[in-house]
Amino acid sequence: MSTIPSEGKKFAFIRGVPKLLDAQATFKQEGESGNWVSDNLPHFKKVVDEVAFLKAVHTDQFNHDPAQLFMHTGSPRLGRPSIGSWVTYGLGSENQNLPGFVVLTSGGKAPSAGKSVWGSGFLPSVYQGVQCRSKGDPVLYIEDPDGISRDLKRNTIKAINEINKKEYAKYADPVNFGKDKSV
């Protein structure tokens, strides 16, 4: 057992200086790059110089949730677009009627940081990821609800779009949409 250097550090939900289990593997510098590799990865040592190592990522977040959010969005606070949203925003999509990207979670649960880790933040929602579920419908709301025919759904959407077009023609300004001009 060893202890963490604790000077000036905060530990979430832990009092005093926590004890840690020592490394369970031996690490050695391998290849021309001198990257540290565990003896648990004997075949990886052979290709270590062909792999990119990202060593510049660090955080001072000491709680799991904000650290997860930081990893996926670049910020420990809510409201920033995820990396998937930025990729979809920057590269676009080959389709017009499917999500820009899908999300697969392990264990059937959302991450502890919540679904914001694949959210679009301040970007339009079209850039948000869509979670594929492991049970039931893979994506929610694709199937028509019970008792609602495809024609009824189509006519409802058409009616809503017509109302929206009339309102836009009336006001023609999204900032003042729905506000009475005579006031």
UniProtKB/TrEMBL annotation:
InterPro entries (alphabetical): DUF1501 (IPR010869)
Pfam families referenced in this protein's UniProt entry, alphabetically: DUF1501 (PF07394)
Know the name of this protein? DUF1501 domain-containing protein
